[in-house]
Amino acid sequence: MGLYINNETNQLVSVILGIADDMIENQSIDKCIDPKTKENILNNTFPSQEDCIKEIERFHETLLKYEIEVFRPNIIKNLNQIFTRDIAFVVENKFFIPEIIDQRNNEKDGIKYFSNSLKEKEKILVPNTIHIEGGDIIIHNDFIFIGYSKDDKLKVARTSYNSIKFMQKHFPNKKVIGFEMIKDDNNPYKNILHLDCAMQPVGKNKLIIYKDGFENKEDYEKIKKIFGKNNLIYIDQKEMYDGNSNIFSINSNVVVSDSTFHRLNDVLTGYKITVEKVYYREISKFGGLFRCSTLPLKRIK
Q: Is 7 a member of any domain?
């Protein structure tokens, strides 16, 4: 099959899609690791396994419609395995296996059958002194963008600053740029869990962006310079909270988006991008949507 990912929008060939089978349905507040999930526990709106399975299987059907090869994790009982994005990631032809937050690290066992099938030269084990989650890695041709936090005491601090140097070492020909993200363990309106909760390349040269999600305002200026101001699609705080930047590109002309993202979907349609609409509101209660649910393995060069 081969591995190859060099951006977020080239034609998708294969992907690992998460599952919602045998997930924890009554999570305790003290074990909660993000503010969006915490909010839904407190509001008694925690999503049911049945609803999550329905939503993610509709997403699966959409991928199959475009003849994408879809792998799934093996089921691990009483473990949420929806968000495969964070447990491994591919850059060019390398499959990175990180040590992630303790509460989620066992999720990697669900895709061990796949990582074990790879050749050793295709795999890179990230040292446990370096924290990286795939949601904080966005690949854009010559660029690797990394969202990070300097406050390692926060539960939502998933990727560390030293990840920048680590990725630059492995890809010396790419421009690796780190962005410190705004973090909050308790308020989902003031927390950027991962970089893809604040920005997302789409189409041939566009970028969805929540410009207030960055700790340093000069980082937004860097992004604006790279993509061009006229190519930025701005979302507001409520749209960030709802997950508007967490859509998923099948190719530069087709995206999967939530059916409730009316304004964003109209904007994308205006750019001649086909929007496959999938209702994903229950999955979103965990703080992630379509990009979070996918671990792309290969896109056409």
A: no
What would the pLDDT profile of 168-202 be if each residue is shown by its tens digit? 999 999 999 999 999 999 999 999 999 999 999 99
What is d(CA 137, CA 195) in angstroms, rounded to the nearest whole number?
Answer: 7
pLDDT of residue 245: 98
The domain that holds 292 is classified in CATH as 3.75.10.10
Which residue range(s) make up the domain with 128? 12-25+32-299
In a domain, residue 1? The reply is no
Q: For the CA atoms of 77, 80, 81, 82, what is the dihedral angle to 10 degrees? A: 140
Q: Is 147 a domain residue?
A: yes
Contact in structure between 75 and 20 (CB atoms under 8 Å): no
Q: What's the alpha-carbon Rg for the chain, to the nearest Å? A: 18
Rounded to the nearest 10°, the torsion over CA 232, 235, 237, 239 is -150
Q: How many domains does the chain have?
A: 1
CB 139 within 8 A of CB 6: yes
Q: How confident is the model at residue 26 (pLDDT cuts 50, 70, 90)?
A: confident
